[in-house]
Write a structure and sequence with these properties.
Strand 1 and strand 2 form a beta hairpin. This protein is an alpha+beta fold and 229 residues long. It folds into two domains: 134 residues, Nuclear Transport Factor 2, Chain: A (Roll), CATH 3.10.450.50; 89 residues, no CATH class. It is elongated, with a radius of gyration of 21 Å. It is built from ten helices and six strands, in the order αααββαββαββααααα. Strands 2-1-6-5-4-3 form a six-stranded mixed sheet.
Length: 229
């Protein structure tokens, strides 16, 4: 075999594939990113984002590097989320989109998917910042009542899971999901109003995460955010 010919051929193929990836439009980049979110495989997200990826909810910093962001991803993946781009447009500030999200946690606390307005910044064909700047169809009082009632019931009946709402690691996510499943199994007659409190109505809402400490953050960041509760 003529290795002198083989090596240049491999290099040409590598650069050709990279060049093809680099030609992705901002819209294609974001669509690939959202598809990666739905795959539950972080490698499918990592390829579209910068190593210094910043994620924010309003003005609160959730992560500022790929490692911290991966922790958020793994926590979120426990609830088997599905994201849908409802609308997307390019602006002077970046790409703005309306993003719909549903998952087991949202179905329990919210009944229906939540809608968020998100601004995405892109540089050198990589997503560098993701900021949620608006939530739509909110009813914080209902979301908070459902979550707080769940937390209270778990503290009283399954103390081994206490604190699940503040642990945004994959283990914390698993405890959160277990808490939901335990609550869903109990008969209405034995909950002292728990079921009726949790299922108040079918209005669409979203968590007041950063105002109540239920932010999607690593343990290191959580302590800082709790000062805002």
């Amino acid at each position: 075999m003529n290795y002198r010919l083989l090596i240049p051929a491999i290099l040409i193929c590598m650069f050709s594939c990279k060049s093809q990836y680099d030609k992705l439009s901002d819209q294609q980049l974001i669509e690939g990113y959202v598809s990666g979110l739905n795959s539950a495989e972080f490698s499918e997200v990592d390829r579209y984002v910068s190593d210094s990826i910043v994620s924010k909810e309003f003005d609160f910093l959730l992560s500022d590097n790929i490692e911290a962001y991966s922790i958020l991803f793994l926590w979120d993946s426990v609830f088997e989320p599905h994201y849908t781009i409802v609308e997307m447009k390019e602006t002077e500030l970046g790409v703005q989109m309306t993003l719909s999200k549903e998952c087991k946690r949202i179905r329990f606390l919210n009944d229906s998917p939540i809608l968020s307005k998100v601004n995405v910044s892109i540089s050198n064909n990589e997503i560098t910042e993701i900021q949620i700047y608006e939530h739509q169809n909110l009813d914080f009082s209902i979301w908070d009542a459902r979550r707080d009632t769940l937390v209270s019931w778990i503290d009283s009946n399954h103390p081994e899971l206490s604190g699940f709402v503040y642990d945004q690691t994959i283990e914390g996510g698993q405890d959160y999901l277990t808490a939901i499943e335990l609550c869903e199994r109990i008969p209405r007659s034995s909950t002292s109003g728990l079921a009726s409190t949790i299922k108040v109505n079918n209005q669409s809402m979203i968590p007041r995460s950063l105002l109540r400490g239920e932010s999607i953050v690593s343990k290191q960041t959580l302590t800082i955010l709790m000062s805002h509760t």
